[in-house]
Each structure stands twice: as structure tokens, then as C-alpha cells.
Amino acid sequence: MSEAYRIPFLDLVKPHKELREELVNVFSSVLDIAGFIGGPVVEAFEREFAAYCGVSHCIGVGSGTDALRFALMAAGVGGGDIAVTVPNTFIATTEAISQAGARPVFVDIDEGTYNMDPQKLREYFESGCRVDSETGHLIDRKLGRRVAAVVPVHLYGQPADMDPILELAERYNLIVIEDACQAHGAEYFSKKDGCWKKAGSMGKAAAFSFYPGKNLGACGEAGAVTTNDADLAHTIQMLRDHGQAQKYYHDVEGYNGRLDAIQAGILRVKLQHLEVWTEERRQSAIRYRELLASTEGVVLPSEPAYSNGVYHLYVIRVDDRVQLQQHLAGANIGTAIHYPVPLHLQKAYVGLGYQAGDFPVAERCAAEIVSLPMFPGLRKKDQIRVADGVQSFVGRAPVGALAASAGRG
Q: Are residues 300 and 258 in the same domain?
């Protein structure tokens, strides 16, 4: 298999070429005012992104890791507390928990969505914890530590099932901080409230990353916290800026986690295009499903009725993903793996005491997942090539009729 051109896993060149003039103008305008850190450009982005997410406050910070760490700290999570999350995520999720002074504890994922399984969360609370009769705190039986927070991850652009997670958190008086770093614009239908809600608007706070490859990406590092809690927002504003309530007056010991004005300006430009880019991703996901729906041996992404995902990644599962990647590479098709080793089995977390087999769903999925090309502007004919490559690998004929029905863009 060979082709004259390569289909990249991710194309960051084309959108920046298309927006070049607007992005250069951002740089020029910031040069004109010499306002490189914070200031009116950052404040304007914060207002616009807060409105986009349907929340009252947005606080721009230096990265998605900063965002999650500061959100946890501002919410009072730390001092050896437990924050419950999933093992199938990027390590930044647990780094933020640890760096806030808390300890990550994992629960397994739902095999269809790859997100936190609310039933596993319930089982952990009911079997692995007890309620202290004096304080009312939820205590992990094995570790003897207070469970303070739940950090659901909206992985690959699909929202976690938030209604039961929030219900459990309310029952046990826990804080919910959303890791929405891959879910800009994703929506969740809350049966409890009878409406659609944006990722980043459901927990006490949420963390977003604007790493360049994200659906809304800066041209460098950037992140933000969204919240409806004014006090929490104020605390994060201090934490990101050395604990300053005003210049040289430090209410707390903080960090250098501020958002650059140039990155904020770039994000303002791109935010205007995000809905169009999101719809392109959704249409590409629909085409992949049409092209691969009848392919035996390939598990496609699941999008529950409560989810309006934004397809940061399009992740399939196969038995031999290494061979599939090599096969597609031979056809000049880029792929990636997100993520090959679940966090509880990473060397960095040997000290947490987990073993292989502790989270069988996450472990099984991590061994089978492959991310196919997914980005705005992905052409139909290129998706057909990708589908042909996948199907030829699993021993089926090329997509033929499906290719004709999908059209060749």
C-alpha cells in the first residue's frame, strides 16, 4: 500500500495558514501596548470563554495542569486528601492532584465511553470507604484518609456521565472538579435538570488546556479554569500570580501560572471559529462510523444519548494495534495512541501500590486503542483511505460501496 501524499494524524499547519493575518495582528497589537502578561487581552478572552462555557468566571492560567492544580487547591483539596479519578487519562490529571497535596485514587472506566464508570465510583464509596461518625467525612478504609474530591475526565472530547457522579458527590459532601482539557464545547444532557450543559459548567470548577493540539489550541502553553464560584475564582487569580491580591501584597504563597496576552489573543481569534471546527469534527466522526460500521474486529467510539461530543480524538480498538499502526504507516497514514499504559501501572506511581488487574477495563482498553486522523478540514477521500487501510488490515475488502456513498471530497 502506498500513496503520493501523507495523511497526518493531526494537521496544525493548515488552520494557522488560514488565520495567519489575524494571528499576526494579535502579535502586532500586543507589541503596540507592550502588555505581555495579563491585562485587557487576557480579560477579554476570559469573559468570552466564560460565556462560551455558560459560566460566570474564567481564569486564564499557564497550562491545563496549572488549571486543575489551582482549581483543586482553591477548593480546599490537599493536605493528604484523596481525589478520585480514572487511570485512563494523561498523567497531568494525577500530577495536578499530587501537586495540590492530595493523593489520587482510581476507579475503573466505562468500556463504551472510556470515562469514569459511576457504578465503580459508587462501589468504591460503599465498599472501600466509611463515613466518620464524628466529622461526617468519607474515609478510605485502607488508607485512612479523607476523600475530598472527584475528578471526572471528559476524555477524547466525550463528557463523562455527570448526573450520577454529581449525585454521589452531593451524597458524600465531595467536591467535583471536571478535567475538561479535551472537551472544549462538549455538551452533556442532564436528566436531573432537563437541559444540555457545557463541559466545564457542571462541577465546582473545571480545568481546560489550550495546548496547541487541542480543539481550541494556543500557539504555546495555556489553560483556564471555569467556575460559577466567585470566591474560588478570586483565589485562583491570586494563586496564578504569586498569591497577590494586589501588586506586592501577597495574601497567600502562590505560583507563576499566568496566561500570556499573546496566547490569549490567539485564543480569542480561534474561539470565533471553534463551533465550525467542532461541526467538522462531528461530521468526520459520522463518516468514520459509516465507513467502518460493518468492520469486524474494530470497536468504534460510543456516543451515549446524553453526550454531544467534540471528538478531540477518534479512538478505535483492535486486537493488534501495533501491527495496525505499522500497516497504516506503510500507507502514509498517521496514527497515535492515547494512552498506552494506564496510570496505575506507570513507574511514577509504583508507590501507590496498585497492580495489574486492579482496573481490568482500563487495562484492556489501553492495550487496544488507536487514534485515527481527526482534525478540522479532514477530507472525505482521506477518511476513505484510512478506512481502506483499517479494513485491509483486518482482512476485509476495501470499503467500495461505502466510499461511493460517502462521496469523495
A: no
